# Entry
Amino acid sequence: MTDVRDPVDQIMAVMENAFDPAFGEAWNRRQVGDALVMGKCHYLLLDKNLHEPGGAGEAAGFTLSRQAADEEELLLIAVLPQYRRRGVATALLRRQIAEARSRGVTRMFLEMRDGNPAEAFYRQHGFLPVGRHRNYYNRGSISGIDAITFALDL
# Structure
């Protein structure tokens, strides 16, 4: 019998290992589950071989996005640390963009913490900064860090 894992389980398995808890960027299981039952939320999962994980396969990374009319926000993208720098994030982002285009999306947004090393990755894929939320990150020991909004015209 094939053991098909719940997408929320797969997303959470990546999330729990991919985000630095100091910044509070990871979502909890309820947030992910609620997003997936809302209309216009989309997710992608890829394994270490850049395929959709089948059966009991392990996800190496995921994306989660939300569409509104002809715009889409990339809410989360994450890759397990042991699979980073192996093309998983690039494959996820390219597929996310292609699928968004197929749904009629003309512009994609994402928001990230200022100083996040992933900024270079997004810029390499054509995202440009379009806005800034001053002092957005003010949780626990983290304070005064801005959030930057990036956009990509599709």
Remarks:
- The first strand starts at residue 41 and ends at 46.
- The longest helix spans residues 88-102.
